[in-house]
Amino acid sequence: MNVISVDSIVLQCVLNPELVINNKLTRDDPNPSDEEKKEYLKSLLLRDPCLFLEKFGNLLGNDELNLFSEIKDNQDVAWYVNKRKKDLLKAATMDKKIVQNRRNKKLQQLINDGDYFGLEQMRFRRPEIFLDIMGTFDCSKVDFDRTLLSEVLTENSFKEEMISKYGLKRKKMK
Fold first, then answer.
1. CA–CA separation, 8 and 53 (whole Å)
2. Which residues on adjacent β-strands are paired with residue 118?
3. pLDDT category, 171, cuts 50, 70, 90?
4. What is the pTM for the complete model shown?
5. How far apart are CA 81 and CA 87, in angstroms?
6. Distance, CA of 43 to CA of 6 (rounded, Å)
7. Which of 12, 29, 53, 101 could form a disulfide with 80 if both were Cys (CB 3.0 to 4.6 A apart)?
8. Which whole number is the average pLDDT over 146-171?
9. Residue 107 pLDDT
10. For residue 1, is pLDDT > 70?
């Protein structure tokens, strides 16, 4: 492992506010300086990379974990690197799910709370798109204050589906 790799890994750990060092270094001084932390972490990393990953691997990101590729032939190091990468991937997936759930909850709230998706509101927000979509349907019998766009589209697409499914043809006026 080259010096630049070691320094970037150690720096990442020292800059992380979650870094907790419990050893002889902290018994003498409860608040060691950053330089003392760097020296301790660097010596531990060079002496025993597996122990370093076990204690401080949770502070590293993918970029720092990739720097361990030089010593991946050590099975223990490879196991800790792969475990941490899986944890990072799982956390990213959970973050996406949380965002999706938040968006879905907000959508349901908008549907339940009022007329955000009502035809009149849709026409007010984006009149050009509204005319593109609704211009193809017969809107003469639609009560814009009480009808959702999805209901109109569903009803009209159902009619179109029935016409095409059963081979019905529209009467043409001559």
1. 14
2. 148
3. very low
4. 0.49
5. 10
6. 10
7. 53
8. 61
9. 83
10. no
Place of tokens 């401080």: 56
Per the model's pLDDT, the better-predicted residue between 53 and 132 turns out to be 53
Sole residue written with tokens 């095409």: 164
Contacts 24+ apart (CB under 8 A), 57-60: 57/81, 57/83, 57/84, 58/18, 58/84, 58/87, 59/12, 59/13, 59/16, 59/18, 59/19, 60/9, 60/12, 60/13, 60/84
